[in-house]
Design brief:
H-NOX domain, single chain, globular, four-stranded antiparallel beta sheet, alpha+beta
Length: 122
Amino acid sequence: MAVPDLIKTFGLRLAEVFSNKYQEFFNECNDTLAFLKKIDDHIHVEVKKLYPDAELPVFDFDDSNPDKFLLTYESSRGFADLAEGLIEGCSHYYNEQFSLSREDLSGGNNTKVRFTLTRSQG
């Protein structure tokens, strides 16, 4: 298995672990997009309380287009593959399907990546 695929698969599994261990965060939201919107302003705030020295990625979103949700990941660590797995794992938790595409905005370093989620029809 290629390393990016392995990291993405780990992200999928990590989302499952998080949803079991920190179910209260998932229960606060009704769907994937609501959950993703809360990562920086709610979930990462709680993580920082437990791990003050943690270097967390930053997520920014744009939901101005009702057909496409844009989520931008930024981290010096370049774990966009892990973020992609976590996003997909989150959508599995809420039993939703999205078409997910990504654009590397960091010139191939995976340190700044824009994910586009389009809700699957049907």
